[in-house]
Design brief:
By secondary structure, the chain is an all-alpha fold. The chain folds into two domains: 62 residues; 65 residues, no CATH class. It contains seven helices and no strands. The N and C termini lie far apart (42 Å).
């Protein structure tokens, strides 16, 4: 199974099971040969299962103190909603802005979302393919936060 397809299925099952994605911060699977076994095990579990149920014998280290509060307060609904918004925002930025030839010579690029990611996503979805940085910036500046 290709890595991207495995990750798509793995994340779909992790979402269904409501697993704490911050608890498993690093996950390497490529070339391990156990992808199908893990997916089958996940498919047999009910929501509320733990990572230890998914991977028996797994001993997760204590969370990094920098993210301990995030791990402890994990809300799967919020996590997956934010993940969907971030993924969609990335796709839209590539579609509208990052194809701009003016950016080809840039040393780096940063994005500011003064009214949040959801607002920026709404603005981007109204713009045509390859509209460019200036069109995005102007549309972002001229669109009220509640629109």
């Amino acid at each position: 199974m290709e890595h991207d397809e495995f990750m798509r299925q793995f994340e779909a099952e992790a979402r269904r099971l409501r697993l704490n994605m911050y608890r498993l911060s690093a996950f390497a699977s490529s070339g391990t040969g156990w992808e199908n076994e893990v997916l089958e095990r996940m498919r047999g579990l009910e929501p509320g299962a733990s990572w230890e149920d998914v991977i028996p014998g797994l001993e997760l280290p204590a969370p990094d103190p920098m993210i301990a509060d995030l791990v402890a307060s994990f809300d799967p609904d919020v996590y997956w909603r934010e993940r969907e918004i971030s993924d969609a925002l990335s796709r839209e930025l590539h579609r509208v802005v990052l194809s701009d030839p003016a950016l080809a010579s840039a040393d780096g690029i940063g994005f500011n979302f003064p009214h949040g990611k959801e607002h920026a996503l709404r603005v981007l979805r109204r713009l045509p393919d390859n509209a460019g940085w200036r069109a995005y910036h102007d549309a972002l500046a001229s669109t009220p936060p509640d629109e």
